[in-house]
Design brief:
The protein is built from 5 helices and no strands. The protein has 113 residues and is mainly α. It has one domain. Helix 1 packs across helix 3, helix 2 runs antiparallel to helix 3 and helix 3 runs antiparallel to helix 5. The radius of gyration is 15 Å and the shape is elongated.
Length: 113
């Protein structure tokens, strides 16, 4: 249950933040969500992985449909892989490692400077 809640929180938080800020703020949100939920490392990584990946896949599909596939056709000529798969994998890895980092930070006491 915590896995699903962490995944949904990651999706909603990343969507809101990425609407106003650059793409890399997704990692900050996934890190904070991973810190708050304090799941195991595998569970937190999986929640960040699936949350960010599904969000980026959905956003890429939405942008593709709304622009009538203009950019997707040009990018697919450059790269042999599917553009949607590449987008989802990059977003998934960033979200997964950020959530794992947040969970691992919870176990450590941070030094005060």
């Amino acid at each position: 249950m915590k896995f699903l809640l962490q995944t949904l929180t990651t999706i909603i938080g990343c969507f809101i933040v990425q609407y106003f800020l650059p793409w890399w703020t997704m990692a900050v949100v996934a890190l904070i969500v991973g810190f708050i939920f304090h799941n195991s490392g595998k569970t937190s990584f999986a929640a960040g992985f699936f949350g960010a990946g599904l969000l980026w896949l959905g956003m890429a599909y939405y942008m593709d449909v709304s622009t009538q596939s203009i950019l997707t056709e040009k990018i697919s000529k450059l790269f042999p892989l599917n553009v949607f798969i590449m987008t989802a994998v990059i977003g998934s890895l960033v979200g997964g490692f950020a959530a794992l980092t947040g969970t691992l930070m919870r176990g450590k006491k941070l030094a005060k400077y």
